Amino acid sequence: MMDNYKITATKQRLDLLTEIEQTPEEYIPELLNFVRLFRQSLLTKQISINAWNNAINQINNSSQDQEKIKQLFESWAELDDENEQKETLKIIESLEDVSI
């Protein structure tokens, strides 16, 4: 299976080189710019996909954190121990990136 891919990729490269060789000399700079822009757009697309996936992961993790905080507050209501609540609140407030 991998050999077929290599053969296909090699043939496509040869086809591309043949097309480039058949391009009139005065159009080579434009073709070069086009190929470079195309390659850069692929890189930009991959960077965008990675950034999107990271954002989704952060949102999902944030939701999990919010759910944990909600469960903590619900357990406070059940326990109704004011001193324990104050102590836990101090711990939460000491954590970075947590706002209540």
UniProtKB/TrEMBL annotation:
One of its GO terms (molecular function) is guanyl-nucleotide exchange factor activity. InterPro entries: DH_dom. It comes from the Bacteria. Residues 12-100 form the DH domain. This is DH domain-containing protein.
